[in-house]
Amino acid sequence: MESNKAELTEKIIDALKEKYEDQVLGIESPYELLTVSLKKEMIVEIIHYLYNHPDTRFQFLTTLCGIHYPDQNAIAVMYQLHNMVTNQRIRLKIFLPEDDPVTPTITPIFAGANWMERETYDFYGVVFEGHPNLKRILNVEDMIMFPMRKEFPLEDQVREDKSDNMFGR
Amino acid sequence: MQTVSLDKVIVSDKPDGLEGAGFFATNLEKVVGLARKNSIWPLPFATSCCGIEFMATMGAHYDLARFGSERLSFSPRQADLLMVMGTIAKKMGPVLRLVYEQMAEPRWVLSVGACACSGGIFDTYSVLQGIDRIIPVDVYVPGCPPRPEQIIEGIMNIQRLVETESLRRRNSPAYKAMLNTYGIE
Prior knowledge:
Chain A is of the alpha/beta class. Chain A is about 25% helix and about 25% strand. In chain A, the strands form two sheets. A five-stranded mixed β-sheet of chain A has the order 1-2-5-4-3. A two-stranded parallel sheet of chain A has the order 6-7. The N and C termini of chain A lie far apart (about 50 Å). In chain B, the strands form two sheets. Chain B has a four-stranded parallel β-sheet. In chain B, helix 3 links the parallel strand 4 (about 80-85) and strand 5 (about 110).
């Protein structure tokens, strides 16, 4: 079983490298989840390729989200895909510049990405080009920040009744 | 089993007034206050754990019905008292405000629990830091969550306000000015 799993993982990497070797920035497996960092330019094409390739068939989008790396001045977008037949998972990561995080939408491939991309926009300000309805989904519409970015403090800034000394802010 | 003779049961204390054979005279305000105080229809706006404490308060053991609040009103149009229990997220703010605006005068607001009163432990960008930022509050019940006894004390404090409130208060310019500070007509 273990060797079978390693074999399947090997096949996935081979399938990816076969066509997009120049796009791969790094491959690792933290907590045994195959993670591939990619260049941002061809992400939609690569996801489409992994969807159809007979060795990968990642036809289910588990989740999609943003990650802020303030020391690299980068906002990453992470896609988790699942092959329901072989029960294989993969995580794809692309890195966008902090000051202009723009990437194409994957809603034509996975309709379920619609709300996930809206959430990523809401919290990280990532603009998904071609998204049918890119607006805030969880936060109030008039919010002027992207609260999960590190430059924005967690605490509500309008309150006056809590002394910093008493509440450890 | 202990028996209580009916003439010892006090349903409600009678207000000050002149009493004689076959008549009792007092002023209208006191009678209206007495009636209102003992027939408050609360509208529960329960969003989290304080709501569970409220359910205990309404249940047979603590029994809020003893205070004249037998009937909960789930329509704001018929409610006298808005009981806000639980964390109010900023996105819930306009909903709460709309519910308050739909209530007919006279109306009172009871803020139950640390979150409704001040945001509580949720000192964060998504949570309203106290409902008094959007609607006027009459009585605050602190606690995280407060016990049913404390909620009942809050209700009794509301009753005290209801009983003693002037009948003209809601028509006064001061009251309108107070509402205007919240941006409510």
